[in-house]
Design brief:
By secondary structure, the protein is mainly β. The protein has a single domain, classed as Jelly Rolls, CATH 2.60.120. It has no helices and 13 strands.
Length: 167
């Protein structure tokens, strides 16, 4: 089950992989050690193409001017689940690909146009929108032309970002 919650200036993405999750009486409550992952923007470490081999940009683009990734949890280089924020500069067209069995994307900031593989046209998505895939593949995304776009990306294999700026 996936759920999105909206508040004024806030987005919460809740992902439940196994269930059922029922509220138990206090005498039956257990602590399995899982904790919420709350992140403040000032605590993020952003990596660009100069420090991240999973970001590919044209040679004419300076790495600092291209997309950036901030890894939040898991092992992003391994074949297990991980989560990251991906920031696309204004006007970039990007493809996010993964060889894993699932790829989930939530728009956190900005607007995107999603280009489905083999399908004509595109789908416009704003903050809080969710896109998911249950097989290896990718998503073609064009970000807003006026502001950067931030996406939450979850996959069970490394995610490659191939980006091209607008001409």
């Amino acid at each position: 089950m996936n759920s999105m919650l909206w508040g004024e200036g806030r987005v919460a993405y809740i992902e439940i992989q196994h269930g059922p999750y029922l509220v138990m009486p206090p005498e039956q409550a257990v602590d399995n050690g899982e904790r919420a992952n709350n992140v403040h923007a000032a605590n993020l470490v952003w990596l660009d193409a100069s420090t991240n081999r999973l970001i590919e940009i044209p040679s004419r683009v300076a790495p600092a001017d291209g997309p950036r990734v901030s890894y939040l949890w898991g092992d992003p280089q391994g074949e297990q689940a991980s989560g990251a924020l991906v920031e696309l500069p204004a006007g970039y067209t990007s493809t996010l690909t993964s060889t894993g069995s699932s790829l989930r994307i939530v728009v956190i900031k900005g607007d995107i146009r999603l280009h489905a593989s083999g399908a004509p046209g595109h789908e416009s998505l704003g903050p809080g929108s969710f896109v998911g895939s249950s097989n290896a593949g990718g998503a073609g995304i064009t970000g807003s032309t006026s502001t950067s776009t931030v996406l939450y990306v979850r996959s069970d294999a490394p995610v490659e970002v191939v980006a091209t700026p607008a001409m």
